[in-house]
Amino acid sequence: MKLIGLTGGIGTGKSTVSQYLKTKGYEIIDADQIARQVVEPGAPALSRLADRFGAEILLADGSLNRRRLAQLAFASPEGKAALDSITHSAIFARIEEQRAKLEQCYADDPTALVFLDAPLLLETGLERMTDQVWVVDVPDQVRMERIQLRDGWTEEEIRARMKNQMERREKLERADRVIDNSGTVKQLYDQVDCLLVEMGGTGQ
């Protein structure tokens, strides 16, 4: 089994690539999904976040107000560091658990590809457990426009989030493969298909 790290800055279309890989039968370890699980009501990490950032990050039903947490955490380096400290260890442990299970499942198939979909793959060092890193990329201005259209965030909110992710240039330098998502969806899928053929991978 080969583990491919799939990443890209907010608004690049990484999730679109991940969903396409799912439709083709590939196993995806979804770091965002895991990140949601570790802050569900009753989870230790959620209590620690509320202690650090205040009860205002909680909705009436006790679940996490993600937008408010992002506003507070990304407002300063100290806030971002606190968020990472609280959540990363729990997230990493679950990723490793899923990776180990899939490695057992595909122990007899060295051509099998499994994907680790992680927006902060490079920032957190998760790429060290992968065999290759694929970066989904678009120019920063296109990212801004897409996020505003999709989420309704202000330009200030988007820039605060982008500021706390690795710069586009460094991501591209550290990528083994770059997927350009500045064109059509078909062009995006065609690039992914070419990479899959190149890797000689098989889905489920």
Describe the structure.
The structure is a single chain. With 204 residues, the protein is of the alpha/beta class. It has a 5-stranded parallel sheet with strand order 2-3-1-4-5, sandwiched between helices. The protein has helices at 14-23, 31-37, 44-53, 66-73, 77-105, 121-124, 140-151, 155-163, 168-174, 185-199, and strands spanning 2-7, 27-30, 113-117, 132-137, 177-180. It contains 10 helices and 5 strands; from the N terminus they run E-H-E-H-H-H-H-E-H-E-H-H-H-E-H. The longest helix is centred in the middle third of the chain and has 29 residues, at 77-105. The protein has one domain: 3-Layer(aba) Sandwich (Rossmann fold). The N and C termini lie close together (12 Å).
Strand order of the largest sheet: 2-3-1-4-5
- Overall mean pLDDT stands at 90
> Helical proportion?
40-55%
So, CATH architecture?
Answer: 3-Layer(aba) Sandwich
Please report which band the strand proportion falls in: under 5%, 5-15%, 15-25%, 25-35%, 35-45% or over 45%. Answer: 5-15%
Task: Give the CATH superfamily.
Answer: P-loop containing nucleotide triphosphate hydrolases
Q: What is the CA–CA distance across the termini?
A: 12 Å
Describe the global form. globular
Count of individual domains: 1
Radius of gyration over C-alpha positions, nearest whole angstrom:
17 Å
CATH class: Alpha Beta
Q: Could you say what the CATH topology is called?
A: Rossmann fold
Specify the structural class: alpha/beta
How does the major sheet shape up? 5 strands, parallel
Number of helices: 10
DSSP E strands, number = 5
Write the element-wise H/E pattern from the N-terminal end onward.
Answer: EHEHHHHEHEHHHEH
Uncertain spans: none
